């Protein structure tokens, strides 16, 4: 069963102006907000490549004008963490480390405020069904980018043990597609656009099934 989704942005009412406030806010904000600020940008239509892949790095750079911390935050890959709490801890430690480097940076007021937004996902049934991996490979180029997001990215939040929908489904075919599972596991969905991710999935399925 192939599905589609939309990620709804909801204001939390929490706004900050300094790095110290950002660090404090990160410790108490809902995990859904951390999720949104790392992944929400992928579903927003853009005409140019994002300068920073997460909103925290972007605000630190353009709101606080702290290029040093912005670069540290920019290289944080959320797929490397077991859950959002582990990601929260990493962000908090990076900010704390920066605050310890200079008392001044903690109290500099941003030229613009940072507003914590939380996400809520709405899921739609596409009414498309696939029975075999070959059918999924045929459908892959035609899936919307939001469908790719739901099955390959949001699934990692839904399954505590990790993994994504395509691989979990393929595991039901036993050892026949072990090689494909390994190739899918090697794909990092974070650094790039959803269109690029879809293209990578298309090529991965195509090259494996044509062997």
TrEMBL record:
Superkingdom, natural source: Bacteria
Protein name as it appears in the record: Uncharacterized protein
Pfam family, one: DUF5752
Classification lineage: Bacteria, Pseudomonadati, Pseudomonadota, Gammaproteobacteria, Chromatiales
Organism for this UniProt entry: Nitrosococcus wardiae
């Amino acid at each position: 069963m192939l599905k589609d989704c939309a990620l709804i942005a909801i204001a939390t009412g929490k706004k900050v102006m300094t790095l110290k406030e950002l660090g404090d806010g990160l410790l108490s904000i809902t995990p859904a907000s951390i999720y949104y600020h790392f992944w929400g940008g992928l579903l927003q239509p853009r005409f140019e490549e994002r300068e920073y892949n997460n909103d925290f790095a972007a605000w630190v750079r353009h709101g606080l004008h702290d290029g040093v911390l912005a670069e540290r935050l920019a290289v944080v890959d959320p797929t490397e963490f077991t859950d959002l709490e582990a990601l929260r801890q990493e962000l908090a430690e990076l900010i704390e480390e920066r605050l310890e480097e200079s008392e001044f940076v903690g109290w500099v007021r941003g030229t613009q405020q940072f507003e914590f937004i939380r996400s809520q996902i709405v899921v739609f049934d596409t009414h498309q069904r696939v029975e075999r991996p070959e059918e999924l490979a045929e459908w892959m180029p035609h899936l919307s980018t939001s469908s790719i997001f739901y099955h390959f990215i949001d699934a990692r939040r839904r399954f505590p043990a990790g993994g994504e929908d395509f691989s979990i489904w393929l595991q039901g075919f036993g050892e026949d597609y072990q090689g494909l599972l390994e190739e899918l596991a090697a794909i990092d969905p974070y650094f790039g656009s959803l269109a690029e991710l879809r293209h990578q999935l298309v090529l991965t399925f195509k090259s494996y099934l044509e062997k």
